[in-house]
Amino acid sequence: MDAEALRERVIGQYSDYVNPGLARLMGFAGFGVETRAEGCHIYDQDGRKYLDCLGGYGVFALGHRHPKVIEVVKKQLDTMPLSGKTFFNQAQGALAERLASLAPGDLTYTFFSNSGAEAVEAALKFAKMATRRPKIVATEGGYHGKTLGALSVTGREKYRKPFEPLMPGASFVPFGDPVEAVTAIDGQTACMIVEVVQGEGGVHVAPPGYLKAVRKHCDAVGALLVIDEVQTGMGRTGDLFATTREEVNADILILAKALGGGVMPIGATMGTHEVWDKVFGDNPLIHTSTFGGNPLACAAGLATLDVIESEGLTDKARTIGGFIMDNLRSLVSPGSLVKEVRGRGLLIGVEFAIDDVGELVIAQLVKRGMIAAYTLNNPRVIRIEPPLVISKEQAVWACETFYEAVAETEALVSALT
Ligand SMILES: Cc1ncc(COP(=O)(O)O)c(C=O)c1O
């Protein structure tokens, strides 16, 4: 089958059998069929190469098909891909031990699942059970996934409204405002769930001292602090865990995406001794997952942590991220389409001055061989979230391509207005 026929067939299958609206949206942005991927590049049906500056929304911290992760997963595949779940599973024990040694604070235990939303579900249940309280405080613009519990604490009306009534007891406060958070968290609050950098909310970094103030108040009223590092975790922001920089300790920490090394899906909910005791103390089966903690995913997680360390990826995220942000900030000027460039490490957001322009810029980027996407809860912001293995040369090319895409979009917008 030739390349164009393949593209038409797959788009047709999406239209007829997956999701017609999604097929239109992806078609508009100019996306074709992904046929292979390697390092920082994705290839389409024509063999055309794209620099992946979205990184699977944070999944591909190690790039695509990192050889060390592939090797370990292949070996695991040949010995024991999934465990019977009745015997002990070495890989799960080893990854839990490794995470406990690396995570900030007293996060001793890990419950493994298969995605970010599942890991959030576990966190919400654990917080409720550990405190025996009904209320959960979350942040406007925050994103925690689209399963019913996770959606209940996701701060965007558009996604919540059609499914109401959702989990009772959730309320929202503006992100970054400690006074509002302190007012909302009371003696009936099980936890506050919050990101260090709101990813889907439009790449907003927690202001200095925000999480410390929240932590202090949680301690005062006996509420738990749940930090969602599904997107910021595993080196993305220049630290293995973004929480470390905030100098706070979470009672529950949530990981997913990059922990699987871009090869396996995985979710992880970490918690303290105190939390685990109250959740699993009377019934170790109170929360379970058939596939969670499977040997393939855990082996991938262990290899991922090795690669992040041996390739110095946290430092790389900091230096290359800083370079890209400094560069793109030259686009911000009075009258420019670009209003602000912000972020931490290689989680970068470019905010546009007007609505709907992001999609045009994305189409221009794709035309030039670069992939980026807007943030789910804030379509005015394009996120630049490449693999942490991105080279300086690739980063320079990405910045130049971004300038060109913005310039062409500006020309287009001014011709239309
Ligand atoms: C901070 C955060 N939490 C949770 C999720 C949900 O993860 P998943 O899509 O794997 O369910 C996401 C996904 O983007 C996320 O960014």
Structure description:
The chain is an alpha/beta fold and 417 residues long. It has 2 domains: 137 residues, Aspartate Aminotransferase, domain 1 (Alpha-Beta Complex), CATH 3.90.1150; 244 residues, Aspartate Aminotransferase, domain 2, CATH 3.40.640. It is 43% helix and 18% strand. It is built from 16 helices and 17 strands. The strands form 4 sheets. A 7-stranded mixed sheet has the order 4-12-11-10-7-5-6, sandwiched between helices. A 4-stranded mixed sheet has the order 1-2-3-15. The longest helix is centred in the C-terminal third of the chain and has 25 residues. Bound molecules: pyridoxal-5'-phosphate. Pyridoxal-5'-phosphate (PLP) binds next to helix 6.
How many H/I helices?
Answer: 16
Largest sheet: spatial strand order: 4-12-11-10-7-5-6
- The tally of structural domains comes to 2
Mean pLDDT across residues: 96
**CATH fold annotation of the largest domain:** Aspartate Aminotransferase, domain 2
Hetero compounds: pyridoxal-5'-phosphate
DSSP summary, beta strand count: 17
CATH architecture of the largest domain: 3-Layer(aba) Sandwich
Distance between the termini: 43 Å
Estimate the strand proportion.
Answer: 15-25%
- Main sheet summary: 7 strands, mixed
Report the principal-axis shape.
globular
Q: Which value, in Å, is the CA radius of gyration?
A: 21 Å
CATH superfamily of the largest domain: Type I PLP-dependent aspartate aminotransferase-like (Major domain)
As residue ranges, the low-confidence spans are: none
Q: Quickly name the level 1 CATH class of the largest domain.
A: Alpha Beta
Sheet/helix structural class? alpha/beta
- How helical, in percent, are the residues? 40-55%
